[in-house]
Specification:
Elements lengths: L1 E6 L6 H11 L4 E7 L4 H10 L11 H10 L8 E4 L7 H9 L3 E4 L7 H14 L3 E3 L7 H12 L5 E9 L13 H6 L2 H4 L4 H17 L3 E9 L10 E8 L4 E7 L10 E6 L2 E6 L5 E6 L5 E4 L7 H5 L11 H21 L13 H19 L5 E2 L3
Length: 382
């Protein structure tokens, strides 16, 4: 098993538990160490609840990395998972990579594009593997959609629509005890973007991942709807894509009644596809000259990438935790191949990495700059 350490994700943290469930699902990781909070007592209590040895529950990420590095190679952690708020991504990730630890990091990758570029250089110099948890790329039918586009069956891609509507910030939640709302709407901890950084980056990544295209220009309308909020909570972006295609991205956290129904549509000259998280086991394929197909997770006709990321027989729903776990599993399989001197199959190498992280941070800064500008179209710069 791969020995895992965690930074952040202590008591009261939502995403830390998701990461731990994902890591545990396939039995490929063992959580052996952690610095679960900037508060040493909270970190200690969290480690105790997780059944860790007291001497491997640390008061800070610096202490974790230094002391684990000093342990015998057969005992020390091999991968460090970082599940802190955005402003606490860069420093621990950089230190972990510099000390030879592989890194799994929550998105967006860093607090700023400048940090992302520096981390890219650090990762390249370290020789370590790096995974960024863009969860939605882990769904089997998202893998199927990507392979369908890559096969050329839809023809040249012309149009793409991606939307991520939420409603949980329709009121001023950060004014109370809501910890998630508090840091996600705080520019000192979240960065220059609110909704566009939190969920817009997911939508952006999903569009580029499935379409195989990159954003080259954008025109953004960015809004802060709720009175008193410091960051954006709503926005829409017109996109120009490589190859001449165009697209539309919508991300909002003030669509009252909406949950997390991420939706993607991609259209080529011969047909199109549609996927949404509310029915994640289904991919609709719409043809110009024949009836619509319904492709389903677990069916024998899907691609090797979809099969590789499916755990249960057809008709048994797989969802968010399984998609998250697919990222952890593929990362583990890649590491195991490295350790054994073999080559991992391409299906196992299909997880978001440092390049996607840099583009995600570039999206945030470009889209906010465009929203503030009176210029209709702006170049997408990295």
């Amino acid at each position: 098993m791969i020995r895992l350490g965690m930074i952040g994700g202590g008591q009261g943290a939502f995403i830390g538990a998701v990461h731990r469930h994902a890591a545990a699902l396939d039995g490929l990781y063992e959580l052996v160490a952690g610095a679960f909070s900037s508060n040493p007592e909270t970190s200690k209590a969290s480690g105790q609840l997780l059944g860790l040895a007291p001497e491997r529950v640390y008061a800070s990420y610096e202490e974790l990395i230094q002391q684990e590095k000093e342990r015998p190679e057969a005992e020390r952690v091999q991968v460090i998972s970082i599940v802190t708020p955005n402003h606490l991504h860069f420093a621990p990730a950089k230190l972990a990579l510099e000390n030879g630890f592989h890194v799994i990091l929550d998105k967006p990758m860093t607090f700023s594009l400048a940090e992302a570029k520096e981390l890219e250089h650090v990762a390249a110099a370290s020789g370590c593997r790096f995974c960024l948890t863009h969860t939605y790329t882990g769904y089997p039918m998202v893998k199927e959609a990507r392979q369908l586009v890559a096969s050329g069956e839809l023809g040249t891609i012309r149009k793409a629509y991606v939307e991520y509507p939420q409603g949980w910030l329709s009121t001023f939640e950060e004014g109370g005890a809501n910890k998630q709302a508090s840091w996600r709407t705080d520019p000192a901890r979240s960065g220059v973007a609110g909704a566009m950084g939190d969920i817009g980056t997911h939508a952006f990544n999903l569009l580029e991942y499935v379409s195989g295209l990159t954003v080259t220009q954008l025109c953004a309308d960015i809004n802060t709807v709720v009175s008193g909020r410091q960051l954006d909570d709503d926005g829409a972006v017109l996109l120009r894509l490589s190859g001449g295609a165009s697209g539309v991205l919508v991300a909002t956290q003030v669509a009252a009644g909406e949950e997390n129904n991420v939706r993607l549509r991609v259209y080529g000259e011969k047909g199109g596809l549609e996927w949404q998280q509310a029915d994640a086991n289904t991919l609709q394929v719409k043809w110009l000259d024949r009836p619509t197909e319904i492709r389903r997770t677990g069916a024998g006709y899907v691609s090797s990438y979809a099969r590789h990321n499916t755990r249960t027989p057809a008709g048994h729903p797989e969802g968010y935790l399984e998609a998250f776990a697919n990222l952890y599993r593929n990362f583990a399989l890649s590491l195991q191949a490295d350790l054994s001197g073999t080559t991992a199959p391409p299906e196992a190498l299909d997880y978001p990495s440092i390049a996607e992280g840099v583009r995600g941070m570039a999206f945030i800064e470009n889209v906010i700059a465009s929203g503030r500008s009176n210029q209709k179209w702006t170049e997408f710069t990295v």
